[in-house]
Amino acid sequence: MQFIEGKNRTQSILFPNSLDQIIKQNNEVRIIDLFVESINLTDFHFVIKTSKEGRPAYHPKDLLKLFVYGYLNHIRSSRQLEKECKRNIELMWLMKQLAPDHNTISNFRRDNEKAIRKVFRHTVSIAKHFDLIGGTLIAGDSTKLRAQNSKKNNFNEGKIERHLAYIDARLDEYNKALDNADDDNKQIIEQEIKKHTERRKDYEDLSSQLEQTGESQISTSDPESRQLITRNNITEIAYNVQTVVDAKHYLPIDYKVTNTNDNRALSGMLRRTKTILGTTDFTALYDKGFHAGVEIKKALELGINIMVAMPAVSSNAPDTNYNMEHFIYDEINDHYTCPQNHILKSNGTWYEKKNRSNHYFVKHYKTQACKSCPVRTLCTKGDRVRLIERSEYAPYIEINKINIESNKELYKKRQAIVEHPYGTIKRQWGFYYIITKKGIKRASADVGFMFTAYNLRRIMNIVDRNLLIKFLQELALLFFGKMNLVKRIIFKIKTAKNSAITLQTFLKAV
Predict the structure, then answer these.
(1) Structural domain span for residue 75
(2) 234 pairs with which residues across the strands?
(3) pLDDT tier at 42 (50, 70, 90 boundaries)?
(4) pLDDT averaged over the chain?
(5) Cα separation of 163 and 372, whole Å?
(6) Which of these ranges, 46-55, 116-125, 261-270, 391-400, has the smallest mean pLDDT?
(7) Contact present, 63 and 108 (Cβ < 8 Å)
(8) What does each C-alpha distance from 381 to 164, 318, 387, 404 come to in angstroms?
(9) Helices (DSSP H) in 40-146: which residue ranges?
(10) What's the pLDDT score for residue 71?
(11) Which of 60, 274, 286, 478 is the Cys-Cys partner for 290 at CB 3.0 to 4.6 Å?
């Protein structure tokens, strides 16, 4: 039986191919190269650490190309990227055979969170150029990405108190055993007492830190990560990534990494979206996790049409036919009418309400007709009269409710729009966790590269590759043209200083 045979490894090659000949013209690595070359890094303010002595620094564009290629090919580890530079032909071409060490690679991501966000914005600009951003319907949501911090290394006051109680109990046992121990066992017990005393001091330090910062929890491996609910009652030590996705081609146009839940995120996301799109003439879809009266008010005051899912009623009447939604509010006369046609009035006083995440004012509405009402037991529990609370944000919540009820089919599109990037990034690419440690800025840099890679992948899949290459070439040439003009002006200024030419002659020369 015959097989296809490879070439002899020891055979000399008379005319070896160059790297440029090996990389095909339509290879996406050429698009990555042009994409980075089309960026004016001066405007992006990348951190460049240089020194007059020692080895020169790597150019930020080379390191940016390395990261964009890495994330597009599901490689995030700085050590793995270092290895790929020495064995991956595409990277050898892209990096011009440069092979930075893993510390240099990691530090570039660590130091350039803001610049990486601007690179992501550049992908949005390219998408706008090719009319991939509709700008009329957007969906917002969040996803939890697990942090580099175990649950064991996350503490709140209750957990610390339990550890301290356990240590105190053990210390009592050891101290009692020490009195009756012989010389051989005394040394072992004293070591255990010392170990537990040191552990107690560590937990006391954590408790003091919580008290000083006012935080409810603390993580020791990644200090800014938090224990967050991922689904149902399942929790993870994670970061919460807020995103805004345009409906036309499921392209993210904004992201923000936080360590809090969604309750107060809505208005901030919409303000940034308004700036990015340059208009308020769009509809925004959000799930019930973003439902907060103060946030809905701010969103409507921005002039944006919003649909935020209504959360389930926290407490029902004994008979659901007498739930609050069946009480009709009269805005002119400021009263409610119940299903039995009784009028519930307010005394006009605003009462302050506080909980862990909200602070607002409400009015109370009630009627004495409850005492003799034949359906009282269906409407309220116990011997109390029925009390209706109306929040100061109720008018805005009702506008949102009307929007939802009159556009149910449109709202159903929310999940399909916003979950598309999450499905690709987390399930297909395996980026379900944050690879960096030590803070939210480093986590944001990691997420920034994820969404930059996602947008580039979508653009390359949708736009004709030849058209994309041509556009990026023109963009790069435009950028280099401006750079050459600046160099010419600087040269002429130096020439003018060293000669006696007039200002008019200088301007003509430029």
Answers:
(1) 19-131+446-485
(2) 231
(3) confident
(4) 86
(5) 56
(6) 46-55
(7) yes
(8) 43, 7, 11, 31
(9) 41-44, 60-72, 78-85, 89-94, 102-111, 113-129
(10) 97
(11) 286
> Strand 359-366 and strand 351-354: pairing?
antiparallel
Q: For residue 509, is it within any domain?
A: no
* 308 beta partners: 286
Instruction: Identify the H or E element spanning 403.
Output: helix 394-406
Six token digits for residue 399: 């506008």
**Residue 506: pLDDT above 60?**
no
Say whether both 95 and 46 belong to one domain: yes
For 282, residues 6+ apart whose C-beta sits below 8 A from its C-beta are 135, 136, 137, 138, 273, 304, 305
Quote the radius of gyration of the chain (alpha carbons, Å). 32
Alpha-carbon distance values, 244 to 120, 333, 460 (Å): 13, 40, 20
Structure confidence at residue 372 (pLDDT)? 86
Q: Is the dihedral of CA 490, 492, 498, 501 positive or negative?
A: negative
Q: Are residues 349 and 467 in the same domain?
A: no
What is the percent of the chain where pLDDT is above 70?
90
Tell me, what's the pLDDT at 414? 93
Query: Over 60: is that where the pLDDT of 486 sits?
Result: no
3-state secondary structure of 69: helix
Average the pLDDT over each of 118-127, 312-321, 330-339, 393-402 and give the range with the smallest value. Answer: 312-321
Residue 209 domain-assigned (yes or no): yes
Of 426, 451, 438, 433, the residue nearest 110 (C-alpha)? 438
Amino acid sitting at position 426: K
Tell me, yes or no, whether 105 lies in a domain: yes
Say if residues 203 and 167 touch (Cβ distance below 8 Å): yes
pLDDT category at 510 given cuts 50, 70, 90 is very low
Give, rounded to a whole angstrom, the gap between the first and last alpha carbons of the chain: 74
Backbone angles phi, psi at 235, to 5 degrees: -120, 155
pLDDT score of 482: 53
- What is the distance of C-alpha 494 from the center of its chain? 47
Query: For the chain, what is the domain count?
Result: 4
* 244 and 349 together in one domain: no
Same domain, 55 and 80: yes
Domain identity same for 416 and 457 = no
Same domain? For 294 and 233 the reply is yes
Whichever domain contains 257, its CATH number is 3.30.420.10
Which residue among 180, 203, 219 closes a domain?
219
Residues 457-467 have pLDDT tens digits of 999 999 999 99
Percent of the chain with pLDDT over 90: 50
Helix or strand run (H / E) with residue 365: strand 359-366
Residue 495: inside a domain: no
pLDDT of residue 14: 66
Same domain, 73 and 113: yes
Exposure string for 143-168, b = 16+ CB within 10 A, e = fewer: bbbbbbbeeeebbeeebbeebeeebe
